[in-house]
Specification:
The structure holds 2 protein chains of 2 kinds.
Chain A lengths: L2 E7 L3 H8 L2 H7 L3 E8 L2 E10 L2 E15 L3 E9 L5 E13 L2 E13 L1 H6 L3 H19 L18 E9 L1
Antiparallel strand pairs in A: 1-7, 1-8, 2-3, 3-4, 4-5, 5-6, 6-7
Chain B lengths: L6 E4 L3 H10 L4 E4 L5 H6 L7 E4 L9 E4 L2 E5 L4 H6 L1 H6 L1 H7 L5 H6 L2 H7 L5 H8 L3 E6 L2 E6 H4 E3 L2 E2 L6 E8 L6 E7 L9 E10 L4 E10 L6 E2 L1 H7 L6 H14 L10 H20 L4
Classes of the chains: A alpha+beta, B alpha+beta.
Chain lengths: 171, 289
Amino acid sequence: MDITGEYRIAASREIVWSALNDPDVLRQCIPGCKELEAKSPEEMDAKVALKVGPVSATFSGNVRLEDIVAPEGYTLIGQGNGGIAGFAKGRALVRLAEAGGHTVLSYEARAEIGGKLASLGSRLIQSTSRKLAGQFFDSFAAHLGGKRATADAPVSAEVDDLELIHHTQNT
Amino acid sequence: MKCRGFRYCRVLTVEEAVESFVSCEGEARFLAGGQSLLPALNLRLSAPDLLIDISRVEGLRGITLEGSDLRIGALTRHVEVLHSPLVAEYAPLLARAARFVAHPAIRNLGTFGGSLALADPASEFPACVLALNAQIEIAGLSGRRRVAADDYFLGLYETALEPGEILTAVYIPAGRTWQRVCFDELSRRRGDYALAGLAAQATFRDGGEVLTALRLVFCALGSKPMRAQAAEAALLNTKVDAVAIEAAQHALSQDLSPDEAEDLSSAARLHLARVLLGRVAHALREGAC
């Protein structure tokens, strides 16, 4: 049940790659991220506030980068403990491809939850993950000079900064 | 489990409620019927600093006919919608759907406005309000405004309500131009979250044979109530015969791409939606409410 999406970003792959490795950029783009502190180039401590419907909890956890192949991609892994509410984990496989001076960013993400969260949230985990992954990559693409794209108003060709090829969709 | 400690205040006017929300330094939540909020607090999925009890705010309860609209106050309980003669006459779709809302104990306390403010994608009333083409009245710091149901439901638990705003009432066109309504739902057990639900309003002409107007809205098949316009188009100006119903069921894949959830694949959920559409279309043709 992976969630996938693809963006065309009007920047070189090196620029996109360095943004993907910049904790400041990640902090701004991770939905609800309150704190993100680098412990090493591959590992960061994070505090993320999640607010979706009946759930409003702050998760303490970490963000880790694995399978790093510069500048082609990595796997972004986040996990957090929301105390008594339960835990949440998510991972996103991110790939960067060169396309005529632009960069095509594609991702596959999945998430799981446990504890009390799962008892109320398991029917909505897919919708919630899609929403959060979409918010992260929308913000990320926007950070590199694009306009925010939504499923209802896809960015059209006249917007030269960022072209949304496929918004999040099921595979 | 018990909830974390919180402060509590009871307000008697909408203005007071909004002021309390705005002046709260931590996280504040409005408490109405409490049938979703209190379980979430007890499971510690949410731990607000302040609960603002709006359940005794004047003017937010009751069902009245105002001009050409049926007005349902936000604090009206599900059970009142279920048994209201005005709802039965002017918005029978809601009475049909109310029977599917949770269990009697929850219907006795849960509020109509609370259901719409939470906007759980599996809830029945949001789908009905969209099918009924209703207007949602919202009060906030800058006064009151009305939002069409089409523009109210934005996404997963996301509505046009801004923080600190209160849903005060729903206005439903009561022209009785819609001749036939139907609500049906599939769930594993009665009262469980719906696997698929469908609210429909239809008008027929030529002696009640040809369908001329239709609104179909599904619940539990997307991140918000989902209007099925491709399926509507396939049924419009037909006699809703087997061929038209099959075309509408086929077209449904343009309207819905449900998420895989728990042990049901996306394809299985779409299949359930098609089964439900077939039942509801038959019921509309037969004139059933």
